[in-house]
Design goal:
The complex is a heterodimer.
Chain A: H1 27-34, H2 42-58
Chain B: H1 7-15, H2 21-39, E1 42-45, H3 47-63, E2 74-78, H4 105-112, E3 116-121, H5 155-162, E4 168-173, H6 179-185, E5 188-191, E6 211-216, H7 219-227, E7 259-262, H8 264-270, H9 275-290, E8 294-297, H10 303-328, H11 335-342, H12 349-369, E9 375-378, H13 404-408, E10 413-420, E11 426-433, H14 438-451
Helix pairs in contact in B: 2-3, 5-6, 7-14, 10-11, 10-12
Classes of the chains: A mainly alpha, B alpha/beta.
């Protein structure tokens, strides 16, 4: 579908979203996007593992200082 | 000659010309021939190389020109350490015929110290996937009971050291791979401070969590081996450019004056340990108290708070390392390794970054907690080794493990034996130090070992 143009330079615009949240990508689509050739039998196990990992990740998604640095920030030495 | 010698004992006898390195190496190979068909700790014994090393050491011995306390000591290398001209497989079909052209830095340093290289030791596939039964070689088995697990991934080193096939060996530790096998096989093993010993020439798993370190029968032996591997490597980006401490200088000072923090909630609430493990820790605290240490409890974030970012970082970084092979040679991995890696492809970048941000906070928390302490103590493992065929396929996130917090924070952490449980297998504890304060960790560990009799007992299979 073509989005209506509002004049000015052509830009990509995201689809209006009434819930104001990102849409979820289906698990099968995520797996397909990885390019890995998984067997259908592996999928339930993989989905369970991903849920486990997602549970761990959810512990890290809480509020934190906006500017908190990751540990990988680095220092340069003068040449 | 005592049938089992520590590195320190053997080194003294060699220096006094009372023990021949060739004879010692022959004894070790006799044990390999007798026990390794059961233990599977070696992937590749290198007998010709070992005998050449031993003869060279003996020549130095006769000439009064020994290189130091490691000269003539039989050791083995985990098979993710590159060895020039000697097959290095990572216990994987993918590298079944891989022969590196250069030694890894640690292999080179131990060779320069005069060690005798006995061979390449079993690992979990690429230091993560195991125990696996669908690889070109079987998994190592626990010498205390071969039906039981060694833990991983430095499984061959744990089994070989405990059974006396080698006097020490290399391990690597990304989430506990030195301390886990040390705990379940009843030996000592230290994950040094991040950056203390080079990782160059060691197959990577997760670069910001990977550590190299030694495993041996005693804490003192670990100190001697670490002395031979530590030091700045300008070609390892994580390597610390600082002088290396003398790790044996404080060994005989005892625990007097040490300020010890006990992370009790880790092993009593967050992942409750067995009765024998808990007793071992409490008995150790009594010993330290009697020697004049100051002991207090320490409260940190729950152990899962350390495990969650650790496993996210490990999964993301390991997937990045293996992605090309996963795409082209998926079925050449063992099933366990495939499963443990593949879901790294589905990890969100934002979650990885949140994990790395959280890691900084946890490092600061640990630093603050240790401000007025010298060491921390908690468990290394929940209890005795489970049966090898009862190890859950994916147990990493079911319960938090005791070792990952110190990979996340990079602190030196030593696992040592604190006795034996109801099943007759070893139990253990973990001693953690401040950054680059390995000497204090060894001091406490050696004080404990000198006050107990656990080091006098070897697996009955090896006796």
């Amino acid at each position: 579908m073509k989005w209506p143009r509002r004049g000015g330079p052509s830009v990509h615009r995201s689809r209006p979203n009434e819930s104001n949240s990102m849409s979820e990508i289906k698990f099968e689509a995520r797996v397909k996007a990885t390019g890995l050739r998984l067997q259908p039998d592996d999928m339930p196990m993989l989905e369970a593992l991903v849920k486990d990992l997602d549970r761990a990740a959810s512990m890290l998604r809480g509020p934190r200082p906006f500017a908190q640095e990751p540990l990988i920030a680095f220092r340069l030495k003068p040449a | 000659m005592d049938s089992f010698l520590s590195i320190a004992e053997a080194g003294k006898l060699i220096a006094a010309k009372k023990l021949s390195p060739v004879e010692l190496t022959r004894i070790c190979f006799d044990r390999v021939a007798k026990l390794d068909p059961t233990l599977h700790s070696f992937l590749l014994p290198t007998e010709d190389r070992a005998m050449a090393d031993a003869k060279a050491s003996e020549s130095r011995q006769m000439a009064g020109a020994l290189k130091g306390p490691l000269d003539g000591i039989p050791i083995g290398h985990k098979d993710i350490y590159n060895t020039a001209g000697i097959r290095t497989t990572a216990h994987s079909k993918l590298l079944e015929h891989n022969v590196p052209t250069e030694d890894s830095v640690v292999v080179s340093k131990w060779a320069a110290a005069g060690t005798v290289m006995m061979g390449k030791l079993a690992t979990h596939e690429f230091a993560i996937g195991g125990p696996s039964f669908d690889l070109p070689w079987p998994p190592a088995r626990n010498p205390w009971n071969p039906d039981h697990f060694t833990a991983g991934s430095s499984s061959g080193t744990g089994a070989a050291v405990a059974a006396g096939l080698v006097l020490g060996g290399t391990g690597s530790d990304t989430g506990g791979s030195i301390r886990g096998p040390s705990a379940l096989c009843g030996i000592a093993g230290i994950k040094p401070t991040y950056g203390l010993s080079s990782r160059r020439g060691v197959l990577p798993l997760s670069q910001t969590l990977d550590h190299t370190g030694p495993m041996a029968w005693t804490v003192q032996d670990c100190a001697l081996l670490l002395q031979g591997m530590a030091g700045h490597d300008p070609l390892d980006p994580a390597s610390a450019n600082r002088p290396v401490a003398n790790f044996t200088a404080d060994l005989d000072k005892g625990a007097r004056g040490l300020r010890i923090g006990v992370i009790r909630h880790f092993h009593e609430i967050d992942n409750p340990v067995s009765a024998a493990t808990k007793k071992g820790i409490e008995d150790a605290l009594d010993i330290f108290r009697q020697q004049g240490a100051d002991i207090r409890d320490v409260t940190l974030s729950p152990m899962m708070d350390y495990n969650a970012p650790g496993w996210l970082i490990l999964t993301a970084e390991a997937y990045a390392v293996h992605e090309p092979w996963l795409k082209d040679r998926f079925n050449d991995y063992g099933a366990l390794m495939r499963d443990r890696l593949a879901f790294g492809a589905l990890l969100r970048a934002a979650d990885y970054i949140q994990a790395v941000r959280r890691r900084r906070v946890l490092c600061e928390e640990m630093r603050d907690a240790m401000a007025n302490l010298d060491i921390l103590i908690t468990a290394s493992a929940p209890g005795e080794a489970p049966k090898i065929d009862e190890v859950p396929k994916w147990a990493m996130l079911e319960k938090p493990n005791f070792t990952m917090p110190f990979n996340v924070t990079g602190l030196p952490a030593l696992s040592l034996c604190t006795g034996y449980g109801e099943g007759g297998l070893p139990v253990s504890m973990q001693i953690v130090g401040k950054p680059f304060a390995e000497a204090t960790v060894f001091q406490a560990g050696h004080a404990y070992e000198m006050a107990t009799a656990w080091r006098a007992k070897r697996p009955s299979l090896a006796a």
